[in-house]
Amino acid sequence: MMSTVTIPKAMKAMVIQEGHVVTWTDHPVPTVGDNDILVKTVAVAQNPQTGNVLVDFRGKPGSILGLDWSGRVVQVGKNVSTPKVGDASLFAIQLGYKVVTTSSPRNFDFVTSLGADIVFDYNDPNVGRKYKESQKISVQVMRSGGGRAVLVLAPVQEAKVRDDVEMMQTMVYTALGHAVDFGPMRNGQSRLKIERNGRLP
């Protein structure tokens, strides 16, 4: 029997402020919707996409930063059947992705225990080549009739070995089906607003 988890009212978060500045500050814990989960993070990672794209170009003051995390589920919405409270969670796995990641060798077992499918040593001078090979293998082993390979990083040309497999890049911010408003571009000339009616395939 699992003990009840007390949900705090506030958490620490990296929040975009005016002038494309990020602060580490107290922030209200998000309310869990009917289709959402709340996770207490145990590990987070810095993602270049977060800094380069969202802070420098499309950062909207008040936005919380962070795409790469793992932790324990502490609350689920009424329509959520999996994961359950207490499960270890890697965000991408909950969306149905196969996870290819990097780590130091001493953390391979830990990262695998959280659900990573393939773990590369980020100190390996061949890690870039291995990542490209993993994209190619993902396309090659896809079922007959093809489908979609959804990637956080841009598809590499070497992986485009089947005409019946579409390779598409996504930003994880759009993966849950919620509207995402990135605010104006820094030069004020364009605005990106993304709305999705469901989760990514």
UniProtKB/TrEMBL annotation:
It comes from the Eukaryota. Gene3D superfamilies: Medium-chain alcohol dehydrogenases, catalytic domain (3.90.180.10), NAD(P)-binding Rossmann-like Domain (3.40.50.720). Residues 33-88 form the Alcohol dehydrogenase-like N-terminal domain. InterPro entries: ADH-like_N, GroES-like_sf, NAD(P)-bd_dom_sf, Trans-enoyl_RdTase-like. Coiled coil: none annotated. One of its GO terms (molecular function) is oxidoreductase activity, acting on NAD(P)H. This is Alcohol dehydrogenase-like N-terminal domain-containing protein. It comes from Grifola frondosa.
